[in-house]
Each structure stands twice: as C-alpha cells, then as structure tokens.
Amino acid sequence: MLAKLIKDPTQIIPSILTWGLFIFNLLPILAPILVAMGEKNISSAIYWIYQFTCHQKASRSFFICDNQCGWCARCTFLWFSTFITAYITFMTRIIWSFKGLRTIVAVLLVLPLILDGGIQFIATAYSLWASVPPFYESTNSIRAITGILFGTGLGLYFFPRLRDELREDMSSN
Predict the structure, then answer these.
(1) Global pTM value
(2) Does the pLDDT at position 10 exceed 60?
C-alpha cells in the first residue's frame, strides 16, 4: 500500500480520508463493547466526542452488549455508506462516470432523508405547539434506509469530484 502511495501521490489524500472515515465509523460501534468490557473512561470519551455529530437518543439507537451505540440508526448507516462510497471511489478501479448524471443521482439519494427528517421535525414541532401526539414519527428501519441513501448520495457527490480534482492537479504539474 505504501509503495502505491509513493508511485501515485494522488492517493495520499484519498487514503487518509478513507482510513479516517473507517476509524470514524468504528468508534461509535466500539463504545458499547468497551462499556461491556469495563473500559468506561474510553467509552465515555467516545460518547462525548460523538455527541457533536448525533443526538444519541436511545429510542433511535442500536444496542450492542446491552449498551447504546455512539450514533443513532440514521447516523450509523449514513456514515457507514459514506465510508463505503469513499472506499469504492478511491480504493477500487470503479469509476463513477457521467458527471451530470452523478449529481442528479446524488440529489435524488439525499431527498428521502430531507423529507423524512423534515416531516418528522414538523410533526414534532406541531405536537409540542398543539399538545397532541406527533402525527408522524420515523422508524429505525426508515432512518437506516434514508441514512444509507443520504450517505451514498453525499459520497457520490463529493468523493468522485475530489478524485477528479486531485488527478487534474497532478496532470497539470
């Protein structure tokens, strides 16, 4: 792998980004396992850090070893699919072609999360204002699906562009 990076410097940034996303995805899953192993200081630090990226509501989260993951269902799948898209874009020979189509597909993949989250937000706000139960609340299955779609759309929009920019920069030098 190191030899590949030296031969092709355009792979340095994508490799760092892909490995960073891998670690970013691993820690919220590792946190409940660390709690079960008695490593409360490390897991508390992970939960604290990830509170800035997710609301961490227990009712919307997965549990491992009877302990809550560091992310909710939507964030878990959103970031995992973002990592998978980065991996496919940077670490394989698959090329996402058709630049205009790529943007359209990315927008279409992002829309379900915006709709689901937006409708749930409106339902919750209305329920607080009217003192009635919300007329809509998403399920973890829907959150997982919309998270996968959003993360894939985000990755399809961002990573191929980054790869193309890096290649253009290298070819112009």
Answers:
(1) 0.83
(2) yes
